[in-house]
Write a structure and sequence with these properties.
With about 325 residues, the chain is α+β, with helices and mostly antiparallel strands. The protein contains 10 helices and 14 strands. The structure holds coenzyme A.
Length: about 325
C-alpha cells in the first residue's frame, strides 16, 4: 500500500492501516457511523455507538486478518477501508465486513472512493477479482457508483408484541423423525439460489451438508424449527435460532433471533404456508423474550425478495459483490498509454 498522496488537488493521503496508531480513530468513525445508522433504524440498537465496543470490534477484525488503509487529512483519520482475503467457494476475493469501512461525516463518502481506488489495485495484482462489501443502507449510493451490484439484503424487524397463544392449523415444532418427510424440501433454498436469475455458485458440499445440518437444528433445543403439515406431508418450514451473544454484531443486535431458513414445497406456494409459519415463529420468538428479528436474502431471489419485505423486514445493509473482468490480469490488457 503506497503512503503517497492520492491526488494533487487534495491534502488527503492514503497510508497502510496500523493498529497501534489507527485503531482508536477508526473506532471513533465507526461509532459515529453507527449513531447515524441507529438513528435511521432504531432496531439496530445502540451498542456500537460506544467507542470501546467499536474498538473491540476492530481489534477482532485485525486479529481475523482484516488489512487495509486509512485516509488522512491534515493529520486526522478521515476514513478507513479494511478487507479480508479468502478463496474457495467465494472465488479468490477480498471481503469488507460491515465494521471494516467508515468515513468522517465531514469528509464524506468520497473518502471510501479514494480508499477503494488505492486498495483495489493491490487486490487485482494479487489475482483477487471478487470484491465483497457489506455496506450500511446509507452508504449504498457510494458503492453502487463504484460498480458494485447487490448480492444479499440484510434486514431487521421488530418482533410483534401482541402474540397469538395458539399455533395456526398444521403448524408445530419439528421432531427428528420429520427428517424423512422434510427431505424433498431441504434443497429448495439451494435450488432457488442456483436457478436464474440468482445464478449463485453452489458446489456439492453445499448439498452434502443439508440433511446433517437440518438434523442438528431440529435437535437443538435453543432453535425454533417449525413445520406446517399439509394433506400429504410437510408443506413448509421456518427455522429461527437465537443469535448467540458471541455472534452479535453491528447487523445482529444482542438478544435478537434470526430467521435463518424458510421454504415451502412448490405445490403449496402462494397458499399462505410461509406467512402462517413466519407469523407464528415470530409470535413464539416474542413469547421467548426476543424483541428483534434479523434475516438476509439474495437480492435477486424472486421469492424471498418479495416475501420478506411483505412480512415487515426492513433492509439495513447490503452485501455487494463486484467481479472484475478476468482479462484484466491477462497479457491483452493495456493499463495505460
Ligand atoms: C419464500 C417462500 C418461503 C414463500 O412461501 P409461501 O408459502 O409461498 O408464501 P405464502 O403463500 O405464505 O405467501 C405469502 C405472501 O407472499 C406472496 N408471495 C409468495 N410468493 C410470491 C412470489 N413469488 N411473488 C409475489 N408474491 C409472492 C403471496 O402472494 C402472499 O402475499 P401477502 O404478503 O399479501 O400475504 C417460498 O416462495 C419458497 O419456498 N421459495 C423458495 C425457497 C426460498 O427462496 N426461500 C427463502 C430463502 S431466504
Amino acid at each position: 500500500m503506497p503512503g503517497s498522496s492520492v491526488g494533487p488537488s487534495t491534502a488527503l493521503t492514503i497510508e497502510p492501516f496500523r493498529p497501534a496508531v489507527h485503531l482508536g480513530p477508526a473506532a471513533e468513525l465507526l461509532a459515529a457511523r453507527h449513531q447515524r445508522d441507529a438513528r435511521l433504524e432504531p432496531a439496530l440498537g445502540r451498542r456500537f455507538t460506544v467507542l470501546e465496543e467499536c474498538r473491540a470490534l476492530l481489534e477482532q477484525a485485525w486479529e481475523d486478518g482484516a488489512r487495509g488503509a486509512v485516509a488522512v487529512r491534515e493529520g486526522t483519520v478521515a476514513g478507513y477501508l479494511l478487507a479480508r482475503s479468502g478463496e474457495g467457494q467465494r472465488g479468490r476475493h477480498c471481503w469488507t465486513q460491515s465494521q471494516d469501512a467508515a468515513y468522517s461525516p465531514a469528509a464524506g463518502p468520497a473518502v471510501l472512493h479514494r480508499l477503494y481506488a488505492a486498495s483495489s489495485a493491490d487486490w487485482l495484482a494479487d489475482g483477487r477479482l471478487h470484491h465483497y462489501v457489506v455496506a450500511p443502507s446509507a452508504d449504498l449510493p457510494l458503492w453502487l457508483s463504484l460498480g458494485f451490484p447487490h448480492e444479499q439484503v440484510h434486514a431487521i424487524l421488530d418482533v410483534p408484541t401482541a402474540t397469538p397463544t395458539e399455533a395456526p392449523h398444521g403448524v408445530r415444532k419439528a421432531v427428528p423423525t420429520d427428517l424423512e418427510a422434510l427431505e424433498p424440501l431441504l434443497g429448495l433454498i439451494n435450488e432457488a439460489h442456483a436457478a436464474p436469475p440468482v445464478f449463485a455458485f453452489t458446489d456439492q458440499p453445499m448439498w452434502d451438508v443439508l440433511r446433517s445440518g437440518h438434523l442438528e437444528l431440529v435437535n437443538d433445543p435453543a432453535v425454533a424449527y417449525w413445520v406446517c403439515e399439509g394433506r400429504d406431508g410437510i408443506d413448509g418450514f421456518v427455522v429461527m435460532p437465537p443469535v448467540p451473544d458471541e455472534e452479535a454484531s453491528i447487523l445482529k443486535p444482542e438478544g435478537s433471533v434470526e430467521l435463518l431458513l424458510a421454504a415451502t414445497a412448490p405445490h403449496a406456494r402462494g397458499t399462505g404456508v410461509g406467512r402462517r409459519l413466519t407469523e407464528w415463529a415470530l409470535a413464539d420468538a416474542g413469547q421467548r423474550g426476543h424483541t428483534v428479528c434479523v434475516t438476509d436474502w439474495r437480492a435477486a431471489n424472486p421469492f424471498s425478495s418479495v416475501f420478506w419485505p411483505r412480512r415487515g423486514f426492513r433492509p439495513v445493509a447490503h452485501r455487494l459483490h463486484r467481479i472484475l473482468d478476468p482479462r484484466l490480469t491477462g497479457p491483452d490488457h493495456v493499463a495505460g498509454v
